[in-house]
Amino acid sequence: MTTGEQERIYFIGGTGNTGAPAVKELLKKKIPVTLYARSPEKAQNLFSSLVAKDDVSSLLTIVQGDLEDLTPFEESIQGHTRLFLVAVDFQNYAKKVIGIAEKAYAAGIKQVVHISSMAVSYPWRVSFIGSMHRVAEESVLAIPDRGSYVALRPSRFMSNNLLFDRPSILHGNVIVDTAKHDVHQEWISNNDIGTVAANIFQDPVEKHGDAVYELVGDLVTPETRAKYLSQSLGKPIKYVKQTVEERYEVLTKQVGLPHGPAFDLMQSREDGSSNVSFGISLLLGRQPETLEQWIEKNKNGFL
Ligand SMILES: NC(=O)c1ccc[n+]([C@@H]2O[C@H](COP(=O)([O-])OP(=O)(O)OC[C@H]3O[C@@H](n4cnc5c(N)ncnc54)[C@H](OP(=O)(O)O)[C@@H]3O)[C@@H](O)[C@H]2O)c1
């Protein structure tokens, strides 16, 4: 980044679990952001109250667009310095990511921060989700004359508690999974992922280069997770271990996942090798949020 150049951060996925906390942090610091959003109203409602009326036009720009047609993105990316990239597509994930990254670098973007997945670090091709993110990472790295590419590889998001467990809590005061009761599972706060991205955007581009950061903020067994939920929601919630057949039925029929990601999500690393990520407090500038804290903060979402 040349000294004095005005930072302007472009967000794809800025209204999501990880993008929204990053956008909020940057707006608080008065760093201008542009959001690529399917629904400008949703984006406006999420963020406009964070910006003083006089600052709205200079700090918050919303471009209506869809990943299925990148024309609005191509027409608006010029003049930005960095790109936050979340892509959601189980069919053509790598194609989407590389298409966006190529256009971004060609328009002068100096740094892409991509929300990838910790499953990229698993052995080659054992994980559907890991493979799609790995192909995407490799494709971006292979773009000639590109700028910096930072891959954040988070473990399971704490926001999954709302996505996957809220229905079974509401219907039967249980959480379900295929993991053993006492296996330590890797969790990361979606707010922390956003904070790491926002912090990287405030550092010089050269500091992070083509870094990869795995993001695990807490290790919690299913039994302990049920205990945290019970404490916060004020009612007994039990962990129920399902068979793979039962879990597969829920993930495909109720959650609506395709076969590959559903098969992946049933698997848990149970070899005791999990750790909170080394150096995560350095990236955050504080200790990571624990699952217990996240549940307490978000308990109203379970009602
Ligand atoms: N959940 C996990 O445990 C986990 C773990 C590791 C990695 N990951 C990875 O994290 C990523 C998901 O991140 P997230 O949870 O922050 O995402 P998210 O909350 O699902 O948000 C998706 C974002 O993308 C936007 N979006 C979706 N479809 C779009 C389209 N067709 N055109 C334009 N924008 C679109 C959404 O905007 P709208 O406001 O328009 O909906 C939203 O801003 C995935 O790549 C996943 O593989 C997830």
UniProtKB/TrEMBL annotation:
<feature type="domain" description="NAD(P)-binding">
    <location>
        <begin position="13"/>
        <end position="204"/>
    </location>
</feature>
<protein>
    <recommendedName>
        <fullName>NAD(P)-binding domain-containing protein</fullName>
    </recommendedName>
</protein>
<dbReference type="InterPro" id="IPR051604">
    <property type="entry name" value="Ergot_Alk_Oxidoreductase"/>
</dbReference>
<dbReference type="InterPro" id="IPR036291">
    <property type="entry name" value="NAD(P)-bd_dom_sf"/>
</dbReference>
<dbReference type="InterPro" id="IPR016040">
    <property type="entry name" value="NAD(P)-bd_dom"/>
</dbReference>
<dbReference type="Pfam" id="PF13460">
    <property type="entry name" value="NAD_binding_10"/>
</dbReference>
